[in-house]
Structure to design on (321 residues):
């Protein structure tokens, strides 16, 4: 079990449940009326080169960007406030929620060196009407998992190597755009335990929380980010605890294909990308569609992807009406 003494002085100043604002130096540009809202989703891989990431975001011109694995104060990324840098270089408002405090324990590899936080973020061209956290069911207890002998050894070893305080969550905000209400949630679902069932449970919980807050509103809702839909015949060679037939999935069907074909349609959400439009790669070994932009009560006019830039994921975007 971890305690406060394991944290750095910086980490002790942070609040796990708080949403932090990172502001640019100039006023927000706003969203031009009469055109679709461009939503971007990108797991930036902690943000090792924030200037390069900011350049890519500027080139893709999103109105709202959903970002995951955004570092703040970790040794591995030079103790930098990655979202603040992105906010200043893009001229967008940054909203940040802490997913985990990365505990700098003995034996932690240099490329994973902690001492700060990692989390989900939104970058916005307009001020939100409201912003809030959503706490879906935790598929893995990162704080106590290293001592839980009910977990597979592979999972316990990963938790021991990346000591953390916190949990997966969704960062959501409501916007007024051209007289319409838009709710956007940046999500990062669990990939270390729970498999397809756990990830879809986290998606459903996120949607239910948004609906409970909005009531019977006809708002356009976008849930976007890293769904970690990696399960496939290749992935199961290294993650044997996953379930090849979870939620009725036929054998030989990848998790991403099953989300696209069977899981999303009953929810009213749709993702505009082909399931073969992969967003994550391990060169010469593995690639898959892990990142999604799911939309309800809106139509997608156009969509596309950007280049790899300081991350093993590439950004994707969708123009939503």
């Amino acid at each position: 079990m971890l305690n406060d003494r394991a944290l750095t002085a910086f980490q002790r100043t942070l609040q796990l449940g708080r949403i932090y604002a990172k502001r640019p130096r100039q006023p927000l540009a706003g969203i031009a009326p009469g055109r679709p809202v461009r939503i971007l989703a990108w797991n930036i891989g902690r943000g090792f080169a924030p200037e390069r990431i900011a350049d890519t975001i500027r080139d893709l011109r999103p109105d709202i960007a959903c970002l995951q694995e955004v570092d703040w104060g970790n040794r591995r990324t030079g103790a930098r406030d990655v979202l603040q840098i992105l906010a200043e270089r893009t001229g967008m408002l940054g909203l940040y929620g802490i997913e985990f405090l990365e505990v700098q324990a003995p034996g932690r590899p240099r490329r994973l060196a902690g001492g700060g936080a990692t989390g989900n973020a939104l970058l916005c061209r307009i001020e939100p009407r409201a912003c809030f956290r959503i706490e879906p069911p935790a598929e893995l207890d990162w704080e106590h998992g290293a001592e839980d002998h009910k977990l597979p050894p592979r999972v316990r070893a990963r938790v021991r190597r990346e000591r953390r305080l916190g949990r997966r969550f969704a960062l959501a905000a409501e916007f007024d755009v051209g007289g319409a209400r838009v709710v956007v949630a940046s999500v990062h679902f669990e990939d270390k335990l729970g498999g397809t069932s756990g990830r879809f449970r986290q998606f459903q919980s996120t949607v239910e929380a948004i609906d409970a807050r909005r009531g019977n509103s006809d708002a356009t809702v976008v849930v976007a980010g890293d769904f970690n839909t990696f399960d496939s015949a290749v992935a199961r060679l290294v993650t044997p605890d996953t379930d090849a037939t979870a939620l009725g999935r036929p054998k030989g069907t990848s998790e991403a294909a099953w989300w696209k074909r069977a899981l999303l349609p009953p929810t009213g959400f749709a993702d505009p990308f082909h399931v073969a439009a992969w967003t994550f790669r391990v060169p010469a070994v593995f690639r898959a569609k892990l990142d999604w932009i799911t939309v309800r009560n809106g139509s997608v006019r156009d969509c596309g992807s950007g280049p790899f830039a300081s991350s093993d994921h590439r950004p994707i975007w969708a123009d939503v009406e």
Remarks:
- The longest strand covers residues 37-46.
- Residues 74 and 116 are 4 Å apart (CA to CA).
